[in-house]
Design brief:
Number of helices: 4
Number of domains: 1
Radius of gyration: 13 Å
CATH class: Alpha Beta
Shape: globular
Strand content: 15-25%
Strand order of the largest sheet: 1-3-2-4-5
Helix content: 25-40%
Order of helices and strands: EHEHEHEEH
Number of strands: 5
Length: 115
């Protein structure tokens, strides 16, 4: 089982992105006020509890509670903000992202097994 680390500061986000030189990072941008995001959160947890790629680090950004971090992620990675959203970061660059109902345990497993 893998866990998601909550990103609560821009410094923490920047450090996590820099660390992708050695290990990929999957960022999950989650809104606690959205039912679609609640479903995506469940799908993400199902993926993490069943057969996650252990070579990837997993982070979560609460887009309402930690808005500056969410905005910085969109700006730094050049990926238009959506929530829910997942962004795979490798060597400091986004290499894949998807959002909303496309975030499923199956999509995650199929995409991340190759990373």
């Amino acid at each position: 089982m893998a866990d998601m680390t909550r990103m609560t500061s821009i410094e923490q986000l920047n450090s996590a992105v820099q660390a992708t030189e050695d290990q990929p990072l999957l960022l999950f941008k989650h809104s606690t006020r959205c039912p679609i995001s609640a479903h995506a959160y469940q799908e993400m947890n199902d993926y993490l509890h069943n057969s996650p790629n252990e070579h990837i680090k997993y982070g979560i950004i609460y887009v309402v509670e930690d808005r500056p971090v969410s905005n910085e992620a969109a700006e730094r990675l050049g990926v238009k903000h959506e929530s829910p959203q997942v962004i795979l970061v490798q060597k400091g660059m986004p290499t894949w992202h998807t959002s909303h109902t496309d975030i499923t345990r199956y999509t995650l497993a199929n995409t991340l097994c190759e990373s």
